[in-house]
Amino acid sequence: MGYQIIVDAIRSAAETVNPNGTFIHGRRSDGSLEYNEPMPQIHLYPFTTSPQSDRNFIVADIVMAFWQQDSPSTTNEERETIIAEMDVLSDSFI
Asked: What is the per-residue pLDDT for 88?
């Protein structure tokens, strides 16, 4: 039950801060398979939960990625801007 609660909470936050982008999660989170979905993309990588028997909560190690499309012709300056934009998006998510 804890897994779905976590996914739902993260999805809700992702959709709030990135309403025109895409939230992707699951066993496989592969941007190359989702390249045609709207950018930016927020990826929630697979995770497991661990119930804490001596406490009333669960623990989960969460790894996420915030992606914006670039191309082979993207300059270093353009890439720096993309990375900065994803930093702002991830800060908004937090």
From this structure: 97
Other beta carbons less than 10 A from residue 88's beta carbon: 11
Contacts 24+ apart (CB under 8 A), 53-61: 58/2, 60/2, 60/3, 60/6
Structure-derived torsion over alpha carbons of residues 78, 82, 88, 94, reported in degrees to the nearest 10: -160
The pLDDT score that the predictor gives to residue 81 is 96
Whole-prediction pTM value?
Answer: 0.84
φ/ψ region of 26 (left if φ > 0, alpha if ψ in -120 to 50, else beta) reads left
What is the pLDDT, as a whole number, of residue 28? Answer: 62
- pLDDT given at position 77: 96
Contacts of 21 (CB under 8 A, 6+ apart): 14, 38, 39, 40, 41, 42
